[in-house]
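Hey forum,

I'm writing up a methods section and want to include a predicted complex as supplementary material. The small molecule is flavin-adenine dinucleotide. I've pasted the protein sequence and the SMILES. Can someone with a working setup run it? I'll credit the forum in the acknowledgements.
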Amino acid sequence: MRSTEVVIIGSGFGGLAAAKQLAKSKVETVLISATPEHLFQPLLYQVATGVLPAQEIAPSIADVLADKKSIDVVEGYVTALDAERKVITYSTDDGSEQIAYEFLIVAAGASQGYFGHDEWAESTFSLKTRDDAIDLRAHLLDCFEAPLADETAHTFVVVGAGATGVEIAGQIQELGLRYFTDAPATVHLVEGAGDVLPVYGGKLSDFARKTLEKSGIDVMTETVVTDIDGDAVTVRAADGTERVLRARTVVWSAGVKATPLAQVVAEATGCETDRAGRLLINPDLTVGGRADVFAIGDMTSLDRLPGQSPVAMQQGRHAADMIRGDTVRGTRFRYLDKGSMAVINRHNAVVDAPFGIKLTGFLGWLTWLGVHLFYLVGFRNRVGAVLSWFRSFAGSARPGFAQVDRSAGRVADAGGADGTGDRRPLAESAA
Ligand SMILES: Cc1cc2nc3c(=O)[nH]c(=O)nc-3n(C[C@H](O)[C@H](O)[C@H](O)COP(=O)(O)OP(=O)(O)OC[C@H]3O[C@@H](n4cnc5c(N)ncnc54)[C@H](O)[C@@H]3O)c2cc1C
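Reply by user p_vandermeer:
Happy to help. Structure tokens for the complex are below, copy them as they are.
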């Protein structure tokens, strides 16, 4: 059986940050991930709406870590943990493999939660993986290109008005206003809380709501989904009034639950989990009674920290620093909150920065642009993203649509003759 000093599970924000930190001390590390890419999830909504081609937010994790000679990247899906023997089991295309470790860092993220209605996963779109975004992108194209008389095709329901819900609703509306100009969209944004972007609150939530409504989006707060049956989405407002929305597209961005590996780790280490299945980790990020197993990021719950990339990255570095001896073992993790932001639509964002700084509108959007460019992984991706953003936001192109496979009976290439993804006339598809 192969053995190594550290095994990291997951190639997301937490896993990548931990790997880079361990590489500073040349700690022998194997990073195992179910997906071959490092996915920049905050921009998935832009892939789904054609703003960015998928590859710009999903570089290969092996390429990203290619210059870190102490790190070996393995594609595999971890299925079991024997915490006593310090061995994990994972499956690959060639079958089941095992690897022994001295230290384990688990960073397997989260998946979509449906508040006890897992069957809704079948009839809704989620935005968690690269494939989710690619599927939604093809579906949105089909809907916008459907005959105008097909009203359900041109109606979109987004459930959950957190950052992802606001961003995808804003971009779907923009598709109708600026790209498929002959086919306006009807977008309903449904949120159970009293505000959109409820974690921001106050001035920022008010600004987001007004901006969305001004663009034509129907914002329904204090409203919950009670049923989804085919094209019919039943929602209930706080006063008990029910309404049925008929839409071919329902994007679900309302809840999270830990990936299945969290349960495997919980059982192997005796760690408790919360209602969403997240590991209730110790303050030093260790799990249960084990000093050699760390869990970080979205699959964990600690101090009510948000499920955001800076938390996962800082936790990854903290766990790595304790392993490589740069920080004393057992040191409590302390999160440095550098603020958060959400885009509403083109040229409009809200930013909640430290020291009470709150930005809205164009200034917020410029801040968002700079920060995301800084954190995008890889020089080529940054250049590619800048070009795509320029074409999408200064112009009205959607470079990502050029990637959609237009075969299988779909209408001709949305990219036009030059394959650029620029606006194509709707006429022939509506006929
Ligand atoms: C649509 C969307 C928008 C977001 N927007 C923002 C934002 O604007 N700002 C922000 O800060 N955060 C945002 N987030 C949250 C942010 O992306 C997460 O907090 C962050 O990705 C968590 O990092 P992680 O390492 O814990 O998990 P992830 O990045 O999800 O990585 C999990 C990794 O584990 C792997 N994995 C899972 N199970 C297994 C297994 N059994 N075996 C092997 N590998 C496995 C996966 O393949 C993946 O590589 C957004 C998330 C989504 C989905």
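Some notes you might quote in the supplement: The two ends are 62 Å apart (CA to CA). The chain has a mean pLDDT of 92.
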